[in-house]
Design a protein that fits this description.
The structure is a single chain. Helices cover 58% and strands 3% of the residues. The chain is built from nine helices and two strands. The longest helix is centred in the first third of the chain and has 16 residues. Helix 1 packs across helix 3 and helix 1 packs antiparallel against helix 6. Strands 1-2 form a two-stranded antiparallel ribbon. By secondary structure, the protein is mostly helical.
Length: 154
């Protein structure tokens, strides 16, 4: 089976799960990302609509769908409070896999999956060596929100 056929089969299987969402908006009260941004695309039903549109080839911008799906924390609060019992976490994980297949992985991710993860000793060594430098990348802001900043990006 070629890659395009596998992708089409994955989209059809996902379509059945997407149909379970009634788009009632009850998830709005529980989504931490939506509470922060107030953007419909960050809400569970907004992401489900984006995935439905990707599956039906209405949206020709899988990068935008990938961005919205990547912003989801996968915390499961929408799933836990869904009156229809929609398995949103499963949907988003499958959709991320489909979009990754659609777009391909970045060179850094490919290198990590091919070289680092199969070799735990090398991975552990790199983690130990990089630990002293972690405050260069992320640093506590000591604000009430318990946020972090990236000093190198400022």
């Amino acid at each position: 089976m070629d890659e395009l056929t596998q992708l089409a089969n994955a989209l059809m299987a996902l379509d059945d799960k997407l149909a379970a969402c009634m788009k009632c908006g009850f998830c709005q009260a529980f989504c931490p990302m939506y509470m922060t941004t107030h953007i419909e695309g960050d809400l569970t039903r907004g992401k489900i609509a984006l995935v439905e549109n990707l599956a039906h080839r209405i949206i020709e911008d899988p990068e935008a769908v990938n961005e919205k799906l990547s912003r989801c924390l996968l915390c499961g609060s929408c799933q836990a409070n869904c009156p229809s019992g929609v398995k949103t976490t499963d949907i988003f994980l499958e959709a991320r896999a489909i979009v990754a297949t659609y777009l391909g992985l970045s060179a850094i991710k490919k290198a990590a999956f091919r070289m680092l993860l199969p070799n735990p000793r090398l991975f552990g060594t790199l983690l130990r060596l990089s630990a002293p430098f972690q405050n260069l990348i992320l640093k506590d802001e000591a604000k009430p929100q318990n946020t972090v900043c990236a000093p190198l990006l400022k």
